[in-house]
Specification:
The protein has 2 domains: 268 residues, TIM Barrel, CATH 3.20.20.140; 43 residues, no CATH class. It is built from 13 helices and 8 strands. An 8-stranded parallel beta sheet has the order 1-2-3-4-5-6-7-8. The protein has 322 residues and is α/β, with parallel strands linked by helices. Bound molecules: adenine and zinc ion. Adenine (ADE) binds next to loops.
Length: 322
């Protein structure tokens, strides 16, 4: 079976995290920035662990300095998505990196990203929507400014608000104001939790921020009551198995709880997170899930349906993709 052609829906993709390393190296050269320390001799990204990954991610992102850089980035990322059969994708974008949370600048970045998305939809057949993401380790005050940018630009294209970054920093409740602002603006909510921290981090995120989806959330598997709650409340997990294995959350895919979560009624979806950083693609995720858990074409069809149901886009867009 060729997994490349199967239609895929991806809900968890960081825009800068999708940047091919050669693209970032090219931008660095254009701008005469020395970030050679973030690459291995073979040109791939170089980092020791998750926390170092966050630093390398931010160093790579420092080369993206104008709306046009983001337009080029978006096209490069969507080219990869389209090559891998992705028909619909939601991407995390951060006003922290796009204009330093200045609303006027943010509008320009967003416009450029949307232009690229429109072009990719016409020429490559992949539909993109945006989720504004605050960065947890930048703190709650910056998250509020980020949420304001999100609320002011919420609409057909900007459909969600989320939080990424170091989940060991701060408490979810510190970010309640930002999430309340985004909820009032009608945005779908998602929070990274249960990637590095335990089940309590997922429970706290649900209680304090009331998201419809959790980014990763795999640590929930270690708490039976939480698994039951996720299933009962239909909380969707944006699971990124390749990312988890590459970063060492699990030693091998065989140990990953995605199959057990699914068997216990939790709505799981599959995404790549930061594909070139973790040497993965959506096709590779499917190949690995087939190899290790025997997921077949029917499973992948169901997976795409679940993901589209959980997408934050409007129903007209959803109906067009189906
Ligand atoms: N930012 C980019 N990738 C991330 C991840 N896997 N977890 C938290 N923050 C991130
Ligand atoms: Zn992520």
């Amino acid at each position: 079976m060729s997994f490349t052609e199967l239609p895929k829906v991806e809900l968890h993709l960081h825009l800068e995290g999708g940047a091919p390393p050669a693209f970032i190296a090219g931008l660095a050269k254009e701008k005469k920035l020395d970030i050679s320390g973030i690459f291995k001799p073979d040109g791939s990204y170089d980092y020791r662990d998750f926390w170092h990954f966050l630093e390398v991610y931010e160093a790579a992102t420092s080369t993206l300095q104008t709306p046009d850089d983001y337009k080029r980035l978006t096209l490069a990322v969507l080219e990869e998505s389209a090559k891998n059969g992705v028909v619909y994708s939601e991407t995390f974008i951060s006003p922290d990196f796009c204009g330093g949370r200045d609303l006027g600048a943010w509008r320009e970045y967003l416009h450029a990203i949307q232009e690229a998305a429109d072009e990719a939809e016409r020429t490559m057949g992949v539909t993109l929507r945006g989720i504004v993401t605050c960065i947890r380790h930048f703190g709650p005050e910056k998250a509020k400014e980020t949420a304001l940018c999100a609320a002011e630009t919420a609409g057909d294209w900007l459909v969600g608000f989320g939080m990424a970054g170091d989940e060991k920093k701060g408490k979810p409740a510190d970010f309640a104001y930002a999430f309340d602002m985004a909820r009032e603006a009608g945005l779908g909510l998602t929070v990274h939790a249960g990637e590095w921290d335990g089940p309590d981090s997922v429970r706290d995120a649900l209680d304090a921020l009331r998201p419809a989806r959790i980014g990763h959330g795999v640590a929930a598997w270690h708490d039976r009551h939480l698994v039951e709650r996720l299933a009962r409340e239909n909380i969707v997990l944006e699971v990124c198995p390749g990312s988890n294995v590459f970063l060492g959350v699990y030693k091998q895919l065989h140990d990953h709880p995605i199959e057990k979560l699914r068997e216990n009624g939790v709505a799981v979806t599959v995404s790549t997170d930061d594909p070139p950083f973790f040497h993965t693609t959506m096709t590779r995720e499917f190949e690995q899930l087939n190899r290790v858990f025997g997921w077949n074409e029917e499973d992948f069809g169901y997976l795409a349906k679940e993901a589209l149901d959980a997408a934050f886009c409007d129903d007209v867009t959803r109906a067009k993709i189906r």
